[in-house]
Amino acid sequence: MADIFIHESASVSDNAAIGNGTKIWINSQIRENSTIGSDCIISKDTYIDTGVTIGSNCKIQNSVSVYQGVTIEDDVFVGPNACFTNDKVPRAFDPEWKITPTLIKKGASIGANATIVCGITIGEYAMIAAGSVVTKDVEPYSLVMGNPARHYSYVDKMGNKIN
After folding, report:
1. Sheet-wide strand order for 102-104
2. Could you tell me if 54 and 36 are in contact, meaning their C-beta atoms sit under 8 angstroms apart?
3. Which residues of 37-70 are buried (b: 16+ CB within 10 A; e: fewer)?
4. Is the pTM of this model over 0.90?
5. Which of 4, 31, 69, 92 has the fewest CB atoms lying closer than 10 Å?
6. Residue pLDDT, tens place only, 25-48
């Protein structure tokens, strides 16, 4: 962990795997058995739950919680206050609740305040507009927006709209 920066206020489990070059900022919590790749930025006030996998070169912005069951591949951007869920039928009193997995594919970008409902896949290099509520799979290179999020256009690898 020589090339890793962990702010003194962050709480990182000894049982978490953190890649070289990763920076973990103020008030972040990284739980046990989570894996974060190399050269990531885990910004202020983030929560990475137990068993979460985050690839390399990802940017998880301020106040994002990534819950158990979410897998984030390489080169993914998650904007501030984006929200992931992991329970399709949440009930506080259900002792047998089940985690529903979510997959965010390589190069995808999730805008600020977007909500990602569990059980979906966001395709490679897809873009989720700020404030969107994603309830269905998103095609690779698709820009979706709205509530519920709907396909708006396709984008290239750099995120530029394709006419």
Report:
1. 17-18, 35-36, 53-54, 70-72, 102-104, 121-122
2. yes
3. bbbbbbbbbbbbbebbbbbbbbbbbbbbbbbbbb
4. yes
5. 92
6. 999 999 999 999 999 999 999 999
